[in-house]
Structure formats: C-alpha cells, structure tokens
Design a protein that fits this description.
Chain A is mostly helical. Chain A has 14 helices and 2 strands, in the order ααααααββαααααααα. Chain B has 2 domains: 1-80 and 208-255, 3-Layer(aba) Sandwich (Rossmann fold), CATH 3.40.50; 84-173, Rossmann fold (3-Layer(aba) Sandwich), CATH 3.40.50.300. The chains are: A mainly alpha (338), B alpha/beta (255). The A-B interface holds A 1, 171-176, 178-184, 186-187, 189-191, 193-202, 208, 212, 254 and B 54-56, 75-77, 80-81, 85-86, 88, 92-97, 101-102, 104-109, 111, 113-115, 118-123, 126, 128-129, 132, 165, 168-169, 171-172. The structure holds adenosine-5'-triphosphate and magnesium ion.
Chain lengths: 338, 255
C-alpha cells in the first residue's frame, strides 16, 4: 500500500462518516448499506479479475452460499450469526477449490465458463430444493448480527458496521497486493511463463485468489442476509453475477479503488435514475425501472470505448492533468506546452 | 559434487511436435561454471531444448539430468526452485509493474510470507518485504539498471528489457542460467555490454547456457560450443574447434 492509498482510505472513511448526515433519511442509508455489500464482493472479484487476470461469471453464487448458510444455520440450527458467517465463508472457499482446481490449472478462460454453469446450478438449487432452501418462499426470520453484545438494530448502526467491513476488506486486499503473493499474481497477469520461470506456482495462486474472492462474496452475502432478515433466490440469479463483473469493469479492473468506485456508482445508479424519472415524466417520457438494464449497458459500452482502463484510471488521469494545469496557472502561463 | 563436474546432461533427448522432429536423440553435457553456447540455424531446436529443460514442454523420450537428478515431469516453478533460471527469446517482462517490482518477483522463492500474514500486516511493517526490496535493488545494480527502478518495465527500450530479464533471473540465485538470444535486437555497444554481463555472471559461479546467433559474441565468451542442425548435435568443442569443423561450416553455408 502506498502513501496515495492511505489518502484514499482517509477519503473513504471520511465519506462513510458524513454520508448518512448528507442523505438524512433511512431509505437512502439502506441504499448505501446495499452498496457496501456490493463493494465487498467487488473487492474480492477485483483481486481475481484485475490482479490474477481471471474472470468469474458466477460470483453471485458465492454470495448466495454466504446468505443461505447464514440464513439456514441461524434459523434452523440456532447457530450464532458470526459462526454461521464463518461456516458460509468456509463452505464458499471449499466450493471455490472444487470449481477452481480443474479449471484454473488450464490456461485460458475456462473459469468463466465453469463459474457461469455453477451459478446457474446454485440458483436452481435455491429455487427447487424446497426442503433445504425453502424454495421460492425463501428463509424467514433471520436474526440481525450483533457486535460485542451490541445489537445493530437501526439502519444507521448497520450502515457503519457494513462499511467497516468494506474498509477492513479493502485493507486486507491492499496488503495482499503489496506482498510477494500479490506481486506473484500481478506477474501472472503480465506473463504467466515468466512468472513461473521466477518460481511462482501460477496455478496454485490462481486457485487461492479465486477462493479468497469467494470468501469476500460469501461474507457479503451473509451480511446481506443479516440485514434484510429474509432471503429468497431472486437476488442471486446469473444477472447479479454479471452485474458484479460490470461494476468492477466500469470502475477499472486494474485497481482496487476502481472496484470500490464501480460498485458504489452502479449500486446508486437505480436511485439516481428514479430521480431522473420525474423530470422525464414531465416531458412526456415514462421511465420504468426495467430500462435500468439499458442504461447499465450504455454506461459499460461508453466506458469500454472511451475509458477502457475504467473510471478510476480516467479520474486519476483527469486529476493529474487538472493538477498540472493548476501548477501552470500558478506559474502564470496556463496555455504553454512544456 | 555431481559426477565429473557436469551440472547438466542431456541423454538422447527427443521431442516430436505432431510430425516435426524438433530434437532427434540429442546428447551433450554442460560443465559446471562454464559458459556453454548452443548455436545452429533457425529452427534447429535450440529454444526447444530450453523449453524442455525449464519444464514448459515434456520430452517425447530421453533424459535430462541436472545435478544427478532427473528433471523429467517437473513444472517450471519447481525447476526454478532447483536453481535453473531462464530468459526468453521474445522478451517476457511484466510490463505493468515497475522495473524493481519485476525483479522483486524473482525473489519469490527466497521469501516465505503466506497469504494470511501478508493480508494482516501492512507491507511497511514486514521485515521480509524490506529484504526483498534490498535484494532486488542489488540485482538491478548488477545489470546496471538501478537508475530505472521506478519506471514501468513496459516503457524500457528493448536492450534494457533484456537486462531486466537477466536481473530477474539472477534474483532467483540460479546455479544454471539459460539465456535465449540475449543479444538479439541489441546494437553493437549493447551487445558488448551483454558479453561483459555474461562474463560477470560466470564470475559469480553461475553456469551459463547461451543460445545466440551473434557469432562474434559466442566465440569470444564461450568455453564450449555445441552446434545443432535439424534437432541433432553436429559438433561440440571449444570455439576454435567448432569454427574449423567441416560439417559446421557446410551447415551454415548450406543454408
Ligand atoms: N510448441 C511448438 N509446437 C510445434 N512446433 C514447434 C513448437 N516449438 C517449436 N516447434 C518447431 O520445432 C522446431 C525447432 O524450433 P525451435 O524454436 O526450437 O528452434 P530454434 O533453434 O530456437 O530456432 P530460432 O533460432 O529461430 O529461434 C521448429 O521446426 C519449430 O517450428
Ligand atoms: Mg529459438
């Protein structure tokens, strides 16, 4: 982690602290809680996509595993929410090894195919295995998670809790990137042959980082289950997995901050669009939430065309040129090329 | 010491790609702490030898004995851990990482920290991280690239990228270093610097196996030269012996 990243952390923590006061309404605090779940899953996905260069089209399934493990173990077995969350994470990790070991030993994008298939299976099980998962009716009465004896009953308490989890998850991810393991992963992305010539066991690392990203997703799913207290298969379809990939791609694969920005932006987008619905109605256009998907597609397309490195890299480049312009203005000659 | 001071022995090594016989019962030995060059016309099978030795390909038949131990079936990362480093004919660097980070990857095998410890402790509090950095700086200085430590590796000119590859390979502290055409694409000044670098590598008691088309360089720095044509060894000896060998002359002129 570099000095700039510590600045990034300060900004993030500052924003987390002031946001609730700015939005000032429980509904929007709730929206920000959901954004935190997406952020957490996207941080893990970014480790996999941006740093190890592998794509998972089934991360929604790991979120489902966390959510269902938490939901079922707390309601049916009476486990504590923390233990259930740990069990879910462990299960997600084990399944990631099972899916990852045969696919990640091969070069190429076999993982994308395998995870896509896996996500459909998990969704089908969630819908059809009524005895286990409750089927379409889902699991009811999931308790809230508590922290050191405090319950996190209000939205605002849960908001701080969820975003603390994001900050911790981000911190751990940054530390991994900035270690021999992280360098090994980035090396695989650069040249798999050269990485192995340098002694990096490429297939083991790819499998490990896939398992780690599954744990991030699973924890995010558990936190979701403890927040909404009710889960059904609906949110865990394959579209959600694709949305997560879109978030990371929009923010920028190559950097963890990109994942955070992409997840935040696309989580808040439906709300922004519903704001836009009223003025659109006034000019005679009826905006339906169904159109969101078109807006997502358009955004992804525009980003891929004009900012292929993602929003974060675009923002960073923008800030850099603004700063250079500012320096030139200070010197009193803004329009002179150096 | 391993038998007869031969760090590496190839015994009847054969590699067939579909119908193409790339290596045809190739046998020769590499003496410890020598510079042994492998030369031959394009397509002779030189790179294939390196790819077999470093585990990227498996031989169809035959044996590769390194320090009295077979390399058969070992993966590239395992072979690196046995002390065999290599560079690539088409330079393979990590373009998005800095020059220093590229070399730090080479310290991978000489460091231990696992995923969990790395995640919990920030890098500036990990003593190992500092050591990796210092070792990498030393390897960079060895090839004379320390001034470029913080530039992205992808923006280096080709000559420096080849130097960087060698620095990274030296970072694993190899006993045997395989260099695949390190001077190709270099100008004459850079080629001279490359020759000096290879000599300094040998002074560090690293055995060098060199594949190279620049004959002046090969004849000047090699202790032994092996000549291949169509996957076979056609001559082996000192640079002088090889230069006077009739079969070698006709193989090169007959092209
Ligand atoms: N992975 C592969 N698949 C199929 N054929 C291959 C493969 N690698 C090498 N060959 C073939 O094996 C033969 C030897 O190739 P190799 O790359 O070892 O030659 P070389 O001596 O390194 O040549 P150059 O001097 O051009 O680098 C060639 O006919 C080549 O086409
Ligand atoms: Mg070659």
């Amino acid at each position: 982690m570099h000095a700039k990243d510590y600045i990034g952390f300060s900004i993030l923590i500052g924003m987390v602290l002031v946001m609730p006061h700015l939005v000032g309404n429980d509904y929007y605090v709730g929206v920000l809680v959901f954004a935190a779940f997406n952020c957490l899953a996207c941080i893990g996905l970014c480790l996999l996509m941006g740093y190890a260069g592998q794509i998972s089209l089934g991360h929604g399934a790991f979120i489902a595993i966390g959510a269902y493990a938490s939901g079922l173990l707390t309601t049916k077995m009476g486990w504590s929410p923390w233990t259930a969350m740990a069990a879910g994470a462990f299960l997600a990790m084990a399944i990631a090894f099972i899916v990852g070991i045969p696919t990640l030993r091969l070069k190429g994008h076999y993982l994308a195919m395998a995870t896509l298939g896996f996500a459909s299976i998990v969704h089908i099980v969630a819908v059809a295995a009524v005895d286990l998962t409750g089927g379409p009716a889902g699991v009811l009465g999931i308790p809230r998670i508590g922290l050191f004896g405090f319950s996190l009953d209000s939205d605002i308490q849960y908001y701080y809790f969820a975003w603390t989890a994001v900050v911790i998850g981000l911190y751990l991810a940054f530390n991994i990137i900035d270690s021999r393991i992280g360098r090994g992963l980035r090396a695989i992305h650069g040249s798999e042959d050269a990485a192995s010539a340098a002694g990096v066991n490429t297939s083991v690392y790819k499998i490990q980082v896939f398992a780690l990203s599954a744990v991030y997703a699973s924890v995010s799913g558990s936190l979701y289950a403890y927040y909404v207290n009710y889960i059904d298969p609906g949110p865990f379809d394959v579209m959600h997995s694709i949305l997560l990939v879109t978030m990371v791609a929009v923010g920028g694969l190559r950097h963890l901050w990109g994942a955070v920005i992409g997840a935040l932006l696309l989580s808040l987008l439906p709300e922004m669009l519903s704001f836009a619905a009223a003025p659109l109605q006034a000019i005679g256009i009826e905006y339906k939430p169904d159109y969101d998907i078109i807006v997502y597609g358009t955004i992804l397309l525009l980003i891929m065309l004009f900012l292929p490195e993602g929003l974060f890299a675009g923002l960073a480049a923008g800030c850099k040129s603004a700063w250079n312009l500012f320096k030139k203005i200070l010197k009193g000659r803004p329009f002179v090329r150096e | 010491m391993y038998g007869n001071n031969q760090i590496l022995k190839l015994e009847k090594l054969r590699k067939v790609f579909g119908g193409v016989v790339a290596l045809d019962d190739l046998s020769f030995e590499v003496g410890t702490e020598t510079i042994t060059s492998v030369i031959g016309p394009n397509g002779a099978g030189k790179t294939t030898v390196f790819n077999l030795l470093s585990g990227y390909l498996q031989p169809t038949k035959g044996a590769m004995i390194y320090k009295d131990r077979s390399l058969q079936g070992e993966k590239p990362y395992k072979i690196a851990s046995l002390g065999i480093g290599r560079t690539f004919q088409n330079v393979q660097i990590f373009p998005d990482m800095t020059v220093l980070e590229n070399v730090m990857v080479g310290r991978h095998l000489r460091s231990r920290t696992g995923m969990l410890f790395s995640a919990l402790i920030p890098s500036f509090l990990r003593p190992e991280e500092k050591r990796i950095r210092e070792d990498a700086v030393r390897c960079l200085a060895f090839v004379g690239l320390e001034h470029a430590a913080d530039t992205p590796a992808g923006s280096l000119p080709l000559g420096n990228q080849r130097m960087l590859e060698i620095a990274r390979a030296m970072a694993i502290e190899p006993d045997l270093l395989l260099l695949d055409e390190p001077a190709s694409g270099l100008n004459s000044r850079e080629t001279i610097a490359m020759g000096e670098l290879i000599n300094r590598i040998r002074e560090k008691r690293v055995t060098v196996m060199l594949v190279e088309h620049d004959m002046e360089l090969v004849m000047e720095i090699s202790d032994r030269v092996a000549v291949m044509n169509f996957g076979r060894l056609i001559a082996e000896g000192t640079p002088r012996e090889v230069q006077e060998n009739q079969e070698v002359i006709s193989a090169y002129l007959g092209e």
